Amino acid sequence: MTKEKEIVVSGIRPTGNLHLGNYFGAIRNYIRMQEEFNCYFFVADWHSLTTHPDPKDLKGNVIRVLAENIASGLDPEKATLYAQSDVPEIAELYLLMNMLAYVGELEKVPTFKDKVRQQPQNVNAGLLTYPVLMSVDILIQRAVKVPVGKDQGQHLEMARNFAQRFNHRYGDLFPEPVAFNYGDNLIRIQSLDGKGKMSKSENEMATIYLNDSDEKIRQKLKKAKTDSGSGIPGEPMPESIQNLFELMKLVSTPDTIKSFEEAYNNQSIRYGDMKTQLGEDMVKFVAPIRDKAAELQRDTTYIEKIMKTGAEKARANAAQTLQQARKLIGLNYY
Ligand code: TRP
Questions:
Q1: Is 200 noted as a catalytic residue in this protein?
Q2: Ligand 1, atom 6: nearest CA belongs to which residue?
């Protein structure tokens, strides 16, 4: 008898352009997981409505984020890829689950409090119930593993709480999902200006996007911050230099890394050369992904086909869970 593969769910936000931080933090994890698990990866388009995006941008953003993920190695033959809004079962279970979610606990969620601070003019109910919707994204597929970063830990804890609460009141239905990453050393890609992580919206010149042109990448690397410091024994390596070495480890050959490490240690390193080399290696890494993503984005028929096939599979699995939830709640009249 073959053992059923464990179910994995993750949501991808359709905002901003994907960058190296997304690639090494999340996408690489997905690519590995699709080999081992039964993966459902979706574009979280309903979630994105909390900030009222322009309707004419939505489709392009969804297609772009899917194209970039597929170009990076997500395989629609292996993982189920879909748009959240193509699975209406999620909306119904969300309604049902809202009855078990307390306003008090939702108001305490740190990500909600952040949003209240950031957009006090738009504190809508969708924002408050974001964790309920996210929990349902996961629970409706009966997922046990969720590849997310630390910032989503609280949301996952809520998903477990809602699962328990439902199971306790109505009968066993939902497994309790846990966060999952290979090893626990989630790579954090620092921005090139030394001010925090690479990010979707801030510091564009310090972030390498998967759709940056070769020239743009070279230019950004040239401008990367380098504090002086050159391997004087006993002195720690400046953070900005550590950061360049970290980036090299992601995209350069072992020989290249070794030669710059040696140059650092014997104090002959020239950071200009290091940044030029890193720029070239980064171009080699990003260019094929960028070009493939651009090609996929032009082939909207292909992306639409993937979305439809994915939605069918996601709906079939979700419908089973929803059917059981209705029955357990007592909503089975016929
Ligand atoms: N909240 C996640 C984020 O901000 C996106 C997300 C929505 C998600 N639903 C999910 C992640 C379900 C994992 C599982 O990145």
A1: yes
A2: 11
